[in-house]
Each structure stands twice: as C-alpha cells, then as structure tokens.
Design a protein that fits this description.
The protein has 19 helices and eight strands. It is of the alpha/beta class. An eight-stranded parallel β-sheet has the order 1-2-3-4-5-6-7-8, with helices on both faces. It is globular and about 50 Å long.
Amino acid sequence: MLTFFQSPRIKTQHDIHCGTLYAHFMGLFTKHLADGKISSDIFIYSLQNRLLELLKKVGKSDLHCHSGRGGNINYLLTGKNNRKDFPLGYFSSLEHMQIFYHTNIKKYFSCKEGLCKRWEASFVRAKEENVKVLVLSFTPSKIFFLGGMQSFMKTVNRLHATYAPNIIFFPELTFERTCDVNLEFERLDEILEPNWFKSIDICSNESAKPIKAFKKIFRKAKENTLRLKAHVGEFGTADDVQSAVEYLELDEVHHGIAAASSKKVMNWLAKHKIQLNICPSSNVLLKRVDSYKRHPIRELYDAGIPVTINTDNTLIFNKSVSEEYLSLFECGLMTAKELDEIRMHGLRAAKVSNK
C-alpha cells in the first residue's frame, strides 16, 4: 500500500505544511480509505504533528458511548437560542455531572423527538470522525418510552441507516445500578427476543447496588449469547473489578482503571484477556485521575491488559475519540505507535467479539 511517506510528490518535512502538497496528501488518503486500506503511518503522523482534522479521518472504534450523550453539543443546539459553548469544567461526582447534564442539555431534549435528536447526534459525530465500529448503550426505559422493542428498533435502525450507514453498529443494553432489578428481569424476554442487542452492561453509581443483584439478568443475557460488560472500577477498587468479572463472567469492563492500583489484579486481567474500555477525558473531568499525564492507562497497557480508547459522554465532556488519542499523546503519556496499536486492537476486537 502506498503511504504518505512513499508519495513521490512529498519531499521534506517543510513541504508537508504546503497547502498544495497537503491537498495532494488528503486526496491520497481518501483513495486509500475508499479501498479500505487504513494507514497506521497516517495516524501516527497526524498525532506527531497535532493534525486533529486529519486524525479524524483515520478509522477508529468507539466501544463505550452512552447513546443519548454521544453527539456534539453544537450540532444539537444549532438554530436554537441556547448558548452553544457553555463552560465545561471538572465535576465533583457523578451526581454533579448529572445535574449539569439535566440543567444544560437534557431539559431541551427530553421529549421523544428530543431523545431521537440526541441519538441522531451520536451517529453524526461518529461518522464525522470516521468511527468504523460504534457501540451505543440504551437503557430499558428508553425502549419503553418509544413504545416497546419494535418501534424502538425501527427508530434506531432508521437513524443508523440515515446518518451513518457505513458504520458497524453494535447496540448495547445497559441497566442503571439504581434500577428495579426484578422489574427489569420481568421484561427482559421482550427486549432480548428480537436478538437485536449484542451486549449488556450495568452503569452509574457503583455503590448503589451490589453486583450480585444483577446475576440473574446476566445469566439470561449469556444464555442469549450477549457479550457481558459492566461499569466497574471507575470509582471502586481493584478488587471490585476482579470480583465483578468473576461473578458476572464479564467479557469486558467499562473503565476498570482502579485495577491499576493492584499488580495482582492487573496480572489476572492480562492472563484472562479482559478488555478495559477506557475513557480518558471522563476519568479526568470526574477527578478519578489528576491529569492525562497521570492516567493509569499507561500501567494497564504495560501490564498487557487489552485496552481501548473511547468517549463515554461526548455531549458532556466535549471530546471526540480523536481528541482522546491526541490528549494522551500531547501530554507525553503514550507514544503515537502505542496509541496506534490500541486503535487497531479496538477495530479488530470489536468486529470479532460482536459477531
């Protein structure tokens, strides 16, 4: 495959910044993309030269994204009289984040049309930055808010086909820790019967309900061949991560960064090849880590644990998945080559595990 560095029309580092040659490069890149040949050279070069717009054009995955919060705020508020660049800062807790979200965003998009607009924004954002494999999570309440599985599936499938038809889309069913487990279990057959969902997850406050409360839900999900995941180790301990994986037989963990505090747990996760879907900006803005420079993805990656890089809540944290990669590179935590290995792993693992 021809790469950027093999192009006969590009001679020096200085030439790279020439508009004519840059345009040629973009044309060359587009040709490779159309042929399905995604170049690691381009990704690495984009990071090293801080070319965000070019970085967005390289294929990548986003394997942890809440469906109603995965879009760009400016896309949602275009044409409205609301402020489009509200100040973003650190959150003291999940509850603080939720208050911010409901006050500044959700109240404008809480009806059915508003909910669908937020889902639409998630697909649009993913397409704009060339996400090739996208996992969006949906709670049961949203399914029944739209009238049940048939109308819900029809709506989401239409949005996928309209706004991001070339993205490989894997829908994920997620339960909040505060939910009525017995109620959710009673209507689980109706949700799973069409075989539409590909994975299952539990999210929100890790201390709200013990992990064991969800055992029967996860057992049924496994019987229906769903991939098993859970938010754990975002706020809890390293032992919480291992216990959740063992008890619920998890295939993947969303976040799981607390595992970095225990070499024993990290070795266990690496041995069992448990993938951690990490969201750096979420961890920084929720004060789970001090900075990108000190993010534990470094230790987790070095321990041999499969990791991916994802957005979590783009609508709140205002970071695309491309910017997540760039943030980890710019702070010096990881090399461009290491980040490219993580990118490629996310693309390969998602396609294989969700078949």
